[in-house]
Amino acid sequence: MLYSFLISLIDQFSALNVFRYLTFRTGLSVMSSMIIVFLIGGPFIKFIESRKITGPIRNDGPTDHIIKKIGTPTMGGLLILIGILFGTLLWADLNNYYVWILLMVATTFGLLGFADDYLKIKHNNSRGISSGLKFFFQIILSLIVIFLLMKFGDSNHLKNLYFPFFKNLVLHLGLFFIPFALFIIVGSSNAVNLTDGLDGLATVPVMLVALSFTLICYVVGNTVFSEYLQISYIADVGEASIFCGSIVGSCLGFLWFNAPPAKIFMGDTGSLSLGGSLGVVSIISKHEIVLAIVGGLFVLETVSVVVQVVSFKLTGKRVFMMAPLHHHFEKKGWAESTVVIRFWIISIILALIGLATLKLR
Q1: Are the C-beta atoms of residues 91 and 3 closer than 8 Å to each other?
Q2: Which residues make Cβ contacts (< 8 Å) with residue 276, sequence separation at least 6?
Q3: Radius of gyration of the chain from Cα atoms?
Q4: Which residues form the domain of 314?
Q5: Which of 57, 124, 137, 146 has the most CB atoms within 10 Å of its CB?
Q6: Would strands 170-172 and 160-162 be described as parallel, antiparallel, or unpaired?
Q7: Cβ–Cβ contacts within 10 Å for residue 140, how many?
Q8: Rounded to 5 degrees, what are φ and ψ at 73?
Q9: What is the DSSP letter of 73?
Q10: Does residue 13 sit within a domain?
């Protein structure tokens, strides 16, 4: 909104031409989102505490974990959503259809997570919406997004799968694009949700993935850089950098309150929204495989749950002391802060590897 207004004044004030630069507006989206979360975070937490909106803790987790976290407010994902909407609506070109699709994903998945958090609080248990029903709604929302992408997106690239480290290795998915995209969106949404189990654990990796895709979307949507890096140029995708930047800023502001010991939990409101949004960003920028690399921590956490469930059903034995993986290390005696920081380090390394794929082809 503010971007459109400022652009309309360029003829009168030539200095405003700086707002045409995507890099400048991306920086503004980061700062705007971070500042708004900083400003409303404290009052929001006090309001949540006054209403006793606290998230039930898994009763099968580490004892120390349960004792320390009882009574901590939840639904902090609302702060992140507000930051994302604020930063994106202020500085993005609202004539860009990718921007509206991403905002729709963030909002609808956030509402699904909000409903899940609400039921957990209402019934004072950690079940919320049944996994089957939640999965059903995720599929429906994802199919709507896929339909919109197929209708408005760049059809020349949308159904292609590009492989990192290779210049010309491209697989045309055809109709298989629909189940593939469905897997990416639903999978990434649930992966972030599974990772969000310790204070700050999911926040920093999400920030790193969003930061990586801020750069990826920028170069994919820039004719000069995409040609130099020998990656496919996709028109209008660059504007998604604004959205990714707003995720970075929102998560940075939220981390102030979510850092150990957390004053508020992200909840499903935030994790489902962030995961689904990052999945869609990877699809429109055609870097789905890079998402699996940069977001490798989320993949690892999800795989640990799958392995645990399959092993127990087939053999009656558990591979890990507890799943997801972060709880396994807690059970082994690692301090929560140790698990979180070491997982952050892994995320940083994976982000660097993912970004290296832009050049190494």
Answers
A1: yes
A2: 105, 106, 109, 138, 141, 142, 185, 186, 188, 189
A3: 20
A4: 22-356
A5: 146
A6: antiparallel
A7: 12
A8: -60, 155
A9: B
A10: no
Q: Which pair of structure tokens corresponds to residue 282?
A: 């990877």
Q: What is the pLDDT of residues 155-174, one digit of tens each?
A: 778 999 999 988 788 999 99
**pLDDT tens per residue across span 253-296:** 999 999 888 899 999 999 999 999 999 999 999 999 999 999 99
What is the C-alpha to C-alpha distance for residues 113 and 99, in angstroms, rounded to an integer? 21
Is position 11 within any domain? no
pTM for this one? 0.95
Mark residue 251 as left, alpha or beta (left: phi above 0; alpha: psi -120 to 50; beta: remaining).
Answer: alpha
C-alpha–C-alpha distance, residues 22 and 34, integer Å? 18
Short-list 32, 71, 38, 59, CA closest to 265 = 71
Classify residue 2: in a domain, yes or no: no
Residue type, 9: L
Judged by DSSP in three states, 160 sits in: strand
DSSP letter for each residue of 41-65? HHHHHHHHHHTT-BPPPPTTS-HHH
AA identity, residue 158: L
By residue count, the chain amounts to 361
pLDDT in tens, 66-106: 566 677 888 899 999 999 999 999 999 999 999 999 999 99
Please state, in angstroms and rounded to a whole number, the distance separating the CA atoms of residues 213 and 354.
10
> Does a structural domain hold residue 316?
yes
Number of domains in the chain: 1
Measured distance CA(280)–CA(149) in Å, rounded: 9
Question: What six digits make up the tokens of 81?
Answer: 């959503």
∠ Cα 26 290 268 (to 5°): 70
Residue 172 in 3-state DSSP? strand
